[in-house]
Amino acid sequence: MVEYFGGWIAASWVAVADGADSGVAAEPCAPAAGRSWFLPDGTTVKNQDAYVVVMNPFDAEAVFSLTVVTEARTVRSKDWSNFLLAPRRTAVFHLNDKVLGDTTVATRLDVSIGRVAASSMGISKKGGIRSAIGTPASAPRLVLAGVADAGPSEIPVLAAGGRAVTYRVTVLSEAGSHPAGGLTEERLAPGADQTERVNAPAAALLLQASEGGRLVPARRSFGLKGDRGSTPGLAPRSAWMLSTAAAADDDEVRIYLANPGRRPIQIRLSALSDSGPRAAARALVNLPPGTTVAVPTAFDPDHALDSVLAVAQNGTFVPVEASYAAAGSGYAVAAGVPIPSRWVP
Hints:
The chain has a domain at 239-343: TM1070-like (Hypothetical Protein Tm1070, Chain: A), CATH 2.60.290.11. Helix content is 0%, strand content 50%. The chain has strands spanning 12-16, 24-28, 36-39, 48-56, 62-70, 74-75, 83-85, 89-94, 105-113, 117-124, 129-133, 141-144, 153-159, 165-173, 176-179, 186-188, 193-198, 204-209, 215-222, 228-232, 239-242, 252-259, 265-273, 276-287, 291-294, 307-312, 318-324, 331-335, 337-338. The protein is globular and about 55 Å long.
């Protein structure tokens, strides 16, 4: 837990696997604890382990229940119901213990006493780790930012509301927007989930539910040597902070910006080092409507651990950063942290 006073900060973390495991996972911290969380990015197929991590950062006890949803069944177990988490403690739940061999494993966390923060963690026995911060609420329209990866992305989608949902997926490529093949009128029953597969490297995806529908999606992408990255669906905002997805300064990082709107926007980028703003690392990026644009690699090429401030001059967008370890085995994707309007520089 990070506490601050008198201003605003963004915080994130990067985990590097050790021992028999390999890979890198990165994710921004949750801006606040909450009473409910959705964690759609789970899979328990062969060689995959899925976990949910729950943190109680306060001085009072928290009580919550976990519901695990797969494409075939919903599981509510006694030992994960009304679970008591002591003050300033963390609990880890291994989803494979309850559902094994499922492609899509989403978790809903409901808090009855107190507030908590939650994230998911995935570990592949073939190498690679990933993590995604929990989503506090479902939404009708969300962007899944895209990066350069090594194959089709997996898109787990949960219909979190009390009604059936029809949705469509739009690819926001560098050349413009177009429907994702075969995903123009997908349907989910109330509380159901499924995993879509979309081949759209370096392109964001826009998920839109039919009128009254609400979704919770995530996106799993693949690095060159099997390591995976994961990000949740995000709503566009006008200003973001990207607190690096890199584990070391010699990693390569790339930033991608997605504009799901109908008007062109211009984004101002500036790098922040541990000693202050980096004067030489500033850029203006034009973002046409319905596109994803990669920030030029010349923006801040030798400082992978810098944070990046991204502010739109005239609209809203979604940024994401990917890191590629110098050794080739580490790959991570991290979404940005939206900056509250009163603190936008």
